[in-house]
Design brief:
The chain is built from 24 helices and 35 strands.
Length: about 800
C-alpha cells in the first residue's frame, strides 16, 4: 500500500519529491513504490454561500437575517475545481491507505487540507508532516516524525471555527449594513468582517483625531552655559507636582507669561551651579524576528508593503530554503536548538562570517539563555532564523530581508552594548536646566550593525574642569524661550498599523508586554498583511506614500456602525479576545461549541441592532462644523450635517461625491466653495461645480461654462479689485493683475465683455481635489509653475499623484518629476 502526500503548493510537492527519492512524473502528481505526491494550489474548497443553502437567499433582505446554517456545507471553488477532482480521485485509490497532510504548518494549512479531505468524503488514516524549514534535512526528519491525526484535532477545530466565525459575521454583517445603507440611500456594498472592520476602525479613528486636533502653543526655555572647556545647552525642567503624573512633559510651559518670568529670573542671576551624575547603562540586542516584527521593521526601513515582505520571506523559505518557516508569531527558539544554531553560524556566507566566527570563538551560544531558548514562548513555530543553506542568486529585495534576518540572528548572541550616560543639572537660583550626554563605550551587539565605541575620552558635552570650581559654576551666556506647538498624531503606516494589530489596538513597545499581548492580537502573523491589502482592494483605505488613509467609503461605514452602537464589531480589543479564544482552542483549553455559540449570539445581536435602528434622521452626535445661522455646532446624522436652528442642511454626499469636512468649513465660512471636481450626473458623466449657500440657507450648485462668464453675475472689475492682487498675469498680450478672489485666482481682464480681448487666466482654488494655495498661485505667476504639490487625485483612476502645475498658452497643465528624481 502507498501513502498520498498532499502539499499546499506545487513547489513544495517538488521539494518533497526531490528529497524522498526516485519518482515518475504523471500529469499532475509524482509516484514511486511508496508514495504518491501531489498538491493543492492554496484553497480549493469554500463554504456554501447563502444562495447555495436556499435560492431565495440570493436576494439581500433584512427579513431573511440572520442566516445561521445548522451545518456548514462545502463546495469546490469554481476556478480550481479540476484540481480538487484530481486530488479526490487520488484519495479514492484503493492502493492508498494513508493520507499525509503536507500543507503549511499552521492554522491556514490545516484548514486547506481539512476542507479538501472532508469534501472528498475520505475516511482514510491521516498523518501530519510538520515542517519549520524546507532544507533536505528538515524534510527527511519531518517524514521520520509524522504526527498523528489526534494531535492535530485542536488546531483543526480552531481553523474551522475561524472560518465559520468569519462567515457568520461577514455574511450577516455585510448584508445587514449594506441593506440598511441602501435603504437610507447612502453608499454601496459595505463589506464588514470579524478582523478587517476593527482594523479599519483604528485607521478611521486616527483620521478623526487628526481632523479634530487643535494645536496648542507651548514654550521651552533653552539656556546656553559657558565653562572652561566650552559651552553647552540645557533645557529648563520644572519639577513634577505629582510624581505619578506623566501626562505633560516637564520641559513644556503652557503660558508665555510664565516663560517670560523664568527668563527674567535667569537673567537676574546669570550664574549656574552645576552638578552631574555619570553611569554605565546596558542595552541588550533585540529578540529574534517573528513575522510581524520583520514586516514592521522592513516597512520602516525600506518602505516595502507588508504583503510584499511576506511573499519575499515565503520565497526565502520555499524557493531558496535559507530561512525557517516565516509565518510565525514566536521570537524564541526551542531549548534543544543551541547545537543547530552553532551549525548555522558555522555555515553563514562570507558577508556575515566575521561576526559569526566571533560568536563561535567566544562560546557565546548559551543554551540556558531564556531570552533565546524558551519552549514556553513557542507556539506552532519558533522564531525566523537562517538555515544552514547559503542563499544563491537572491534578488535585491530578497537580499535585504535575508540580511535583516541573518544579522538579527547573529546579534542576539553578542553581549549587551554599553553606554556612558552623563546627566548634568545647571541650577540658576531655584531653576534647573537639564543636559544629557550619551556615549557608546562598548558596542557589543551593535558591532554587528557597524557601530563602534566612540572612544574613552569622547563626550557629547564638554567636561567640567577643576577651574570651574567645587561646586562647579557656569556662566549663563544666553537664555531664550522657544515657541512650539503640539502636533496631531501621525497617520498609520503599515509598520505602525501592524504593531497596533498585534497589540489589539494598543501600541506596545516593551518586549515582555508585547509578548503577552500577541495572543490577543487582531488576526495572525500570516493574515495581517492580507487584511491590509484587502482593505485597500475594497477601497476602504488608500496609500499616500507610506501613510494609510481612510476613504469616504470607510467614513460612511463607520458613521453607520457608530450609529448602530455595535462596539464589538469595531473594537480591536474585543476582536482580539476572539483570536485569544482560538488560541485557547488550539491548546485544548476551550471547546469548539462554546466559541461558535458565542459568535452566533453576537451575530444575532448585530442584526437585531441594525433592524431596530431608526432611519437616517437620527442625530448621531455634534460635529466640529459651526453653523453661521446660530453659531452653534452642527448636528450630524447618517446623511447630513444640520444646524440646530434647522436653517442649514449639508448633505454628506452630493451628486455621488463625498464632501470633505474642510470643504464644508470653507462653504460655511465664505458661503461658497469651489469649483470642485468629481460630481457625477445621473447618466454617470463627471462634472465640476461650485457650491453656494443662499440667504435662506439652501445649498445650490453654481456652474461655469467654457470660461465665458463668472459663476457670480454680480462681479465687476471694481469688485474684483477690492480683493488683494497676487501678481501680474503671464498670458500673452495681457498686462492685467491677478486677484485672490473668493473661489478662484482671476485676471482683471477675464471679466471683459469683449471676447476678442478677454484674458483666459482664471484658476479655481481647488484642482483635482487639491487646494491651490495663494503662495503656490503666486509662484505660478512669477515662475510659470508651482512647486511639486502632493495629493492631486486622478479623474480616471482615483489615485493620488504629485506634480507641479504649469500655465502655458492659456491652459493649466501638470509637470511631473523625472523618474530618477522620484526614485531618489
Amino acid at each position: 500500500m502507498k501513502k498520498l502526500v498532499i502539499a499546499e503548493k506545487p513547489s513544495v510537492a517538488r521539494d518533497i519529491v526531490n528529497v524522498l527519492g526516485e519518482f515518475k512524473k504523471h500529469d499532475d502528481f509524482y509516484e514511486n513504490n511508496e508514495y504518491v505526491v501531489s498538491s493543492a494550489v492554496g484553497h480549493l474548497v469554500e463554504l456554501f454561500m447563502p444562495e447555495d443553502i436556499d435560492a431565495s437567499l440570493k436576494k439581500w433582505s433584512l427579513d431573511t437575517l440572520p442566516i445561521l446554517p445548522e451545518k456548514f456545507e462545502k463546495k469546490p471553488i469554481e476556478q480550481t475545481k479540476k484540481k480538487f477532482n484530481e486530488l479526490k480521485k487520488l484519495m479514492a485509490r484503493k492502493d492508498i491507505d494513508v493520507i499525509i497532510n503536507a500543507c503549511d504548518a499552521g492554522r491556514e494549512g490545516e484548514l486547506i487540507f481539512t476542507y479538501i479531505y472532508e469534501l472528498a468524503g475520505c475516511k482514510k488514516i491521516i498523518k501530519r508532516l510538520w515542517l519549520s524549514s524546507m532544507t533536505t534535512e528538515s524534510i527527511r526528519d519531518g517524514f521520520l516524525h509524522l504526527r498523528d491525526e489526534e494531535e492535530m484535532k485542536n488546531l483543526q477545530y480552531a481553523a474551522k471555527c475561524r472560518s465559520e466565525a468569519d462567515w457568520l459575521i461577514g455574511i450577516n454583517g455585510t448584508r445587514a449594513v449594506t441593506t440598511k445603507m441602501f435603504r437610507s440611500r447612502i453608499g454601496n456594498v459595505a463589506t464588514v468582517g470579524r478582523v478587517q472592520t476593527p482594523t479599519l476602525s483604528m485607521i478611521c479613528n486616527r483620521e478623526r483625531e487628526i481632523i479634530n486636533f487643535i494645536p496648542r502653543d507651548y514654550w521651552r526655555i533653552v539656556g546656553n552655559f559657558g565653562i572652561t572647556n566650552g559651552s553647552y545647552t540645557g533645557t529648563f525642567n520644572k519639577p513634577k507636582i505629582n510624581k505619578n503624573d506623566c501626562q505633560d512633559r516637564i520641559d513644556r510651559l503652557w503660558s508665555e507669561e510664565e516663560a517670560t518670568q523664568i527668563i527674567d529670573e535667569v537673567n537676574a542671576v546669570k550664574v549656574a551651579v552645576v552638578s552631574e551624575k555619570k553611569k554605565r547603562t546596558k542595552q541588550n540586542a533585540p529578540r529574534l524576528y517573528d513575522l510581524t516584527t520583520l514586516q514592521r521593521e522592513a516597512n520602516t526601513r525600506y518602505g516595502m508593503p507588508a504583503g510584499m515582505i511576506l511573499n519575499i520571506a515565503q520565497s526565502l523559505y520555499e524557493k531558496h530554503k535559507c530561512i525557517t518557516y516565516p509565518r510565525t508569531d514566536s521570537n524564541a527558539l526551542p531549548e534543544d536548538y543551541s547545537q543547530t544554531c552553532i551549525q548555522v553560524l558555522e555555515s553563514v556566507s562570507q558577508e556575515f562570517k566575521e561576526f559569526a566566527d566571533t560568536v563561535l570563538k567566544n562560546n557565546w551560544v548559551d543554551p540556558t539563555n531564556k531570552k533565546i531558548f524558551n519552549n514556553k514562548q513557542i507556539s506552532d513555530h519558533f522564531a525566523i532564523i537562517p538555515t544552514v543553506k547559503q542563499p544563491i542568486s537572491l534578488s535585491d529585495e530578497e537580499s535585504k530581508i535575508y540580511a535583516m534576518i541573518a544579522l538579527r540572528f547573529i546579534a542576539i548572541f553578542f553581549p549587551a552594548a554599553e553606554f556612558n550616560v552623563t546627566t548634568r543639572v545647571s541650577k540658576v537660583g531655584e531653576l534647573e536646566f537639564l543636559t544629557e550626554g550619551k556615549v557608546l563605550a562598548e558596542p557589543g551587539w551593535l558591532a554587528v550593525y557597524g557601530r563602534s565605541a566612540t572612544g574613552p575620552d569622547a563626550e557629547t558635552i564638554p567636561a567640567l574642569a577643576e577651574q570651574d570650581g567645587n561646586p562647579a559654576k557656569a556662566n549663563v551666556l544666553e537664555v531664550n524661550a522657544v515657541k512650539e506647538a503640539t502636533k496631531p498624531p501621525a497617520r498609520y503606516t503599515e509598520a505602525t498599523l501592524l504593531a497596533m494589530m498585534e497589540g489589539a489596538g494598543k501600541m506596545v513597545d516593551d518586549e515582555e508586554l508585547a509578548e503577552a499581548m500577541k495572543e490577543r492580537g487582531l488576526g495572525t502573523p500570516a493574515t495581517r498583511a492580507q487584511i491590509i491589502d484587502h482593505l485597500i482592494s475594497l477601497k476602504y483605505i488608500e496609500r499616500n506614500k507610506r501613510d494609510l488613509m481612510p476613504t469616504p467609503k470607510a467614513e460612511d461605514l463607520f458613521t453607520f456602525l457608530d450609529a448602530f452602537n455595535i462596539n464589538v464589531l469595531s473594537s480591536p480589543t474585543m476582536t482580539g479576545e476572539w483570536e485569544y479564544k482560538l488560541r485557547q482552542m488550539e491548546q485544548g483549553n476551550l471547546d469548539r461549541e462554546s466559541f461558535i455559540n458565542g459568535i452566533i449570539t453576537l451575530t444575532k445581536d448585530i442584526v437585531e441592532k441594525i433592524k431596530l435602528f431608526e432611519e437616517a434622521d437620527k442625530i448621531i452626535r455634534l460635529s466640529t462644523l459651526i453653523s453661521p445661522s446660530d453659531n452653534l455646532p452642527m448636528q450630524e446624522t447618517l446623511k447630513d450635517f444640520r444646524s440646530q436652528d434647522g436653517k442649514i442642511v449639508l448633505l454628506k454626499t452630493l451628486s455621488s461625491r463625498r464632501m470633505a469636512i474642510s470643504e464644508f468649513e470653507e462653504l460655511l465660512r465664505n458661503k461658497r466653495v469651489g469649483p470642485l471636481e468629481g460630481f457625477r450626473s445621473k447618466l454617470g458623466k463627471l462634472y465640476s461645480a461650485s457650491l453656494i449657500i443662499d440667504d435662506s440657507g439652501k445649498v445650490n450648485f453654481s456652474f461655469e461654462k467654457n470660461l465665458e462668464h463668472m459663476d457670480d453675475p454680480t462681479i465687476t472689475v471694481e469688485r474684483l479689485r477690492s480683493y488683494e492682487g497676487i501678481g501680474k498675469c503671464q498670458c500673452e498680450n495681457c498686462d492685467g493683475t491677478v486677484y485672490d478672489y473668493e473661489n478662484a485666482y482671476i485676471c482683471e481682464n477675464f471679466i471683459k465683455k469683449d471676447k476678442a480681448s478677454r484674458c483666459m487666466f482664471r484658476i479655481g482654488k481647488y484642482v483635482l481635489g487639491k487646494e491651490l494655495t495663494r503662495e503656490q498661485a503666486a509662484k505660478l505667476l512669477a515662475n510659470g509653475k508651482t512647486d511639486v504639490i502632493e495629493g492631486f487625485r486622478s479623474k480616471k483612476t482615483g489615485r493620488l499623484f504629485s506634480a507641479a502645475l504649469i500655465f502655458k498658452e492659456g491652459k493649466l497643465g501638470f509637470e511631473f518629476q523625472p523618474k530618477e528624481s522620484r526614485k531618489k
